[in-house]
Amino acid sequence: DPSNCDAKAVKTKYFPLVENLYFSYDTCASSGSASSSSAWSEEDLEISRRLYTLSEGYARGARVLIEQSYMSHDTSEICELSDGHSMCPCNSCYQSLTWGSQVDFTEVGMLLGAQGTPEEKSNAVCMSEQVSSHYKAV
Predict the structure, then answer these.
(1) What distance in Å separates the CA atoms of residue 50 and residue 57, rounded to the nearest whole number?
(2) In contact, 112 and 81? CB cutoff 8 Å
(3) Residue 110 CA, distance from chain mean position
(4) Average of per-residue pLDDT across 115-135
(5) What pTM value is reported for the model?
(6) How far is CA 112 from CA 35, 84, 117, in A?
(7) Which of 28, 40, 107, 132 could form a disulfide with 44 if both were Cys (CB 3.0 to 4.6 A apart)?
(8) Do 117 and 108 form a contact (C-beta atoms < 8 A)?
């Protein structure tokens, strides 16, 4: 419940039928929140198992999407990294005490590597555009 937590949370898009389910890379430290030393009930464990199974399925789906993108990519297509999708600088990042750096888990970005030909970098941008919508759905 984001109203009982001081961490930045985003409503999940993967579980649209579950009301009041939010996702955060931070942990809640406010009063009334569960601490890591609290024992989980059997119901908590079962819910976690189901969420893990669903998440694992999404990760496998992402892998398939990346492989399909690689196989179907038209290497003659030219793709350039737009300013809005570059990870550096991150204009919407906030300081996370948990991660010890500035982060924004609501955005998907890309950082071009230092190595590679212009054609290889263009291919990487094209493929990243094809798979980014999958990760934005979290």
Answers:
(1) 11
(2) yes
(3) 12
(4) 80
(5) 0.46
(6) 39, 14, 11
(7) 40
(8) no
